[in-house]
Amino acid sequence: MNHQNLAAHWMPFTPNKGFKAQPRMLTGAKGMYWTTDDRRQVLDMTAGLWCCNAGHGHPHIAEAIARQARELDYAPCFGFGHPLSFELSERLAELAPGNLNKVFYTNSGSESVDTALKMALAYHHARGQAGRQLFIGRERGYHGVNFGGIAVGGITNNYKAFGQWLAVDHLSHTQDLGRNAFSKGLPEYGGIEMANELERLIKLHDASRIAAVIIEPITGAGGVLPPPVGYLKRIREICDQHDILLIFDEVICGFGRTGNAFASQTFDVLPDIMTTAKGLTNGAAPMGAVFAGDHIYDAVMASAAAGVEFFHGYTYSAHPLACAAAMATLDVYEQDGLLYRAAQGGEIADYFEQGLHSLKGLPGVIDIRNYSLIAAVEFEPLAGKPGASGSAVQSMAWEQGMMLRSLGDAIAMSPPLIIEKHHVDQTIGILEKSIRQLYN
Ligand SMILES: Cc1ncc(COP(=O)(O)O)c(C=O)c1O
C-alpha cells in the first residue's frame, strides 16, 4: 500500500503520526485470527475492541446482514417501527436479569452511557425529584467519549481538554497492589471498605442531589480490575438505602465475557439500568442497547399524559442491519453455548488463568489479574518513560503474530470466547518472549 494515502484519515485514540509512519493494517479476519496486509496471520487476543466474542467472520451473522440489506435497508424509528427490533427486544429482555425488561437502542457504548444517564435524570424528574442531578462515577472508569461519559469516567486524559460538563464525583478505583497483586479471580481484600467510600460521598453531596452511581462491574479500559469480593453488593445496598440508582456499564462485560450473559448475573447484583454494545452484534454492526428496569420505564411513561415521553433517540436507533446482526449473533451464542463458556473456574478460563500466572516471576512483571476471559499483566514502568511499557510489549507481540491491548504500563486481553487451549499456549509463549526481550 502507498503510505502517502493515509493522510486524510484522522484516526481515533491512535498516535496518528506513529501509525502513518509504521502502519499496522488488517485486511481480513476469520475465527481467532486477523490477516494483515503483508499476509501474516495474527492471533486476536482482544476480540477486536472487546467485541467479537464469537470470533471473526461468522457466516450466519454475515448472511443475516446481507439478507436484511436486501429486504429492508433502513426504517425510521421515531414514530415508526419494524418487526425485527421488537423481536430482538423480547429476546434480549428474556436474557437480561430481573426486571431489566425495556430495551433502548443506540449505536455505540458511548451513546448507551449517555442514554443511561439521561434515563436516570428523566426517572427522578418524573418522580418530582429533579434536584437529583449529580452522578458518581469511579476513578479509572471508562464510559466512552461523549460528554456524559467522559464526565463520569475517571481517566484524566479523556476529559482534560474538554471539561466535565455534568455534576460529578468519583469513587476511588479498586486496585490495591499491596494486598491483591496476582489475584486469581476476584481480589480478596478491601471490597467492603472500598464500597463504603460511597457513604462518605453521599454525606458530602447529600442523597437528595444524587441521581445515580455508574460503574463497570469489571473496570476494563482503565486497567482490567475485577471487583474485590463483596464490593458490588455493598454498593447496591448503599444505593438502595438512599434511593440512588445504580447503573452497570456492561459494554465490555455483556454477552458472555464473565461466563454469563451479563456480569450482573455472574456477581448476583441487579442494577436499575444496564448499558451494553460491542458483543451485542459480535462487532459486525454498530449497535448498543440500554436495558432499563420496569420501574424506570413505568415512571417515565407515567410522567407524560400524551406525546413523546422521553426526548431522546438516534436516527440509527434499532437500525435493521444492526438488529439482523444482533439476532444472528444471539443464535450463534445460544447454539455454541458461548455465553457460559468463559465461566471463571471452567475449563478454558482455568487454563488461561494457569497459563497467565505462570508468567509470575518474569522480570518486570508486577501484577497478573484475571476473571473469566478477561485479564491484564502489569509491568514496572520503564526508566524515564512511565506508561510506555504496555505499548512496547504490544508492539513486540504484534511482530510475533499476536494482537494485545496496551493500557499504560499494562497489557489487556479479552479473547473471543471461542478460544482453545492451543491459542492460550501460543499467547503465553509470545508474552514470555516479549517480556524477556523488554526487561532483559
Ligand atoms: C465500559 C465501556 N463503556 C463504554 C464504552 C464506549 O463504547 P464505544 O467505543 O462503542 O462508544 C466502552 C468502550 O470500550 C467501554 O469499555
Layout of secondary structure:
Layout: H1 16-21, E1 26-30, E2 33-36, E3 41-44, H2 47-50, H3 59-71, H4 83-95, E4 102-106, H5 109-126, E5 134-138, H6 147-152, E6 168-171, H7 177-180, H8 191-195, H9 197-205, E7 210-215, H10 231-241, E8 245-249, H11 263-266, E9 273-276, E10 288-292, H12 294-302, H13 320-335, H14 338-341, H15 347-357, E11 365-371, E12 374-379, H16 389-399, E13 402-403, E14 405-407, E15 410-413, H17 421-438
Parallel strand pairs: 3-13, 5-6, 5-7, 7-8, 8-9
Antiparallel strand pairs: 1-2, 2-3, 4-10, 9-10, 11-12, 12-15, 14-15
The protein binds pyridoxal-5'-phosphate (PLP).
Class based on secondary structure composition and strand pairing? alpha/beta
Provide the number of structural domains.
Answer: 2
Strand content: 15-25%
Task: Give a list of the ligands.
Answer: pyridoxal-5'-phosphate
CATH class category of the largest domain: Alpha Beta
State the low-pLDDT regions, or none: none
Number of helices: 17
Kindly report the name of the CATH homologous superfamily of the largest domain. Type I PLP-dependent aspartate aminotransferase-like (Major domain)
